Amino acid sequence: MEFTAKQIAAYVGGEIIGDENVTVCTFAKIEEGTKGALSFLANPKYASYIYDTQSSIVLVNNDFVPERPIQATLIKTANAYESLAKLMALYESVKPKKTGISPMASVAATATIGENVYIGPFVSIGEKAIIGNNTIIEANTSVGDNATVGSDCILYNHVTIYHDCKVGNRCILHAGSVVGADGFGFAPGTNGYEKIPQIGIAILEDDVEIGANTCIDRATMGATVIKRGVKLDNMVQVAHNVVIDEHTVMAAQCGVAGSTKIGSWCMVGGQAGISGHIKIGNQVKVGGHSGVTNNVQDGKAVMGYPSFEHTQFARATVIFKKLPEMYREMDALKKEIESLKQQLANGKA
């Protein structure tokens, strides 16, 4: 399907600089552009590519001023990256979607299946499970007894939704992700560790996206809750009874220990670890590789292990690099002081 620059500009509310009738049918990175492709420029580091790109249309921010002639047609918008995301979502929405139930799927007679649903080969849908309209469930995925999956969701291959758990509308769960596995609960005893039954559930609200091999554990009692608009990257671990509030994002390999509450609009860098039974406020930023062991107030940015305020961390990092030199200087000063003490003691000062 082709779109003209005029159509694209109207859709994203942009201004055309160049040929309004030029058409595109695909997307490409600006440095790999080809005729018929749409690219974007948001990061100034890539500005040099815009003068030689072969892409037919390039989205740019309103404040972009070219230094020399550009072959491509430009569409200026308030936010080029956001406009690109909007166009890519449109592109995906017009692709034909699969529907129907594979004869190799196992769907319980008591399950409720909505309209225009696709259920692929070797999918298992348990007793009294509910699948909403327009949802796509790819091969080898399992939806347990009494579990609910909302409308317009995509469950990719090998996703597992355990019994009684709930997934909202417009959620995307990537391959290998697990919702509702037992929380890590064991009581030490004389003969080893006794398992504590995990009788709660896990809930994903609307518009949540879960990366490949990410695990959301069910609660010991009550619910582990991933609230509306949360985005979790690949290989993230969320323990029992955790609550992650709206629109928080977490990069790959993060871990959140049990019963911690994370606020809304937080950003957590890759491989960060967050201890259990603490509270992270709203709009908090956690640097990658950080270890958060205490409560964090709204709006703070923390880094390091154990984590502390990011400006202090930056200053400490600068000092850390100088520690060998500082140690040598301190050692020399100690020797000089000892020498002066000896001279004083011997009456030679």
Q: Could you give the topology of this structure?
A:
Layout (H helix, E strand, L loop, with lengths): L2 E2 H8 L2 E3 L5 E2 L1 E2 L9 E5 L15 E5 L11 E5 L2 H14 L6 E2 L4 E2 L4 E2 L4 E2 L4 E2 L4 E2 L4 E2 L4 E2 L4 E2 L4 E2 L4 E2 L4 E2 L4 E2 L4 E4 L4 E4 L2 E4 L5 E4 L4 E2 L4 E3 L5 E4 L4 E2 L4 E2 L4 E2 L4 E2 L4 E2 L4 E2 L4 E2 L4 E2 L4 E2 L4 E2 L4 E2 L8 E3 L4 E2 H36 L4
Parallel strand pairs: 4-5, 5-6, 6-7, 8-11, 9-12, 10-13, 11-14, 12-15, 13-16, 14-17, 15-18, 16-19, 17-20, 18-21, 19-24, 20-25, 21-26, 24-27, 25-28, 26-29, 27-30, 28-31, 29-32, 30-33, 31-34, 32-35, 33-36, 34-37, 35-38, 37-39
Antiparallel strand pairs: 1-3, 2-7, 22-23, 39-40
What attributes does this structure have?
single chain, 349 residues, alpha/beta, Udp-n-acetylmuramoylalanyl-d-glutamate--2,6- Diaminopimelate Ligase, Chain: A, domain 1, UDP N-Acetylglucosamine Acyltransferase, domain 1, 12-stranded mixed sheet, 10-stranded parallel sheet, 40 strands
Describe the structure.
The structure is a single chain. With 349 residues, the chain is an alpha/beta fold. The protein folds into three domains: 3-93, 3-Layer(aba) Sandwich (Udp-n-acetylmuramoylalanyl-d-glutamate--2,6- Diaminopimelate Ligase, Chain: A, domain 1), CATH 3.40.1390.10; 100-309, UDP N-Acetylglucosamine Acyltransferase, domain 1 (3 Solenoid); 317-349. Helix content is 17%, strand content 29%. The protein contains three helices and 40 strands. A twelve-stranded mixed sheet has the order 8-11-14-17-20-25-28-31-34-37-39-40. Strand 22 (186-189) and strand 23 form a beta hairpin. The chain is flat and about 100 Å long. The model has no long low-confidence stretch (mean pLDDT 93).
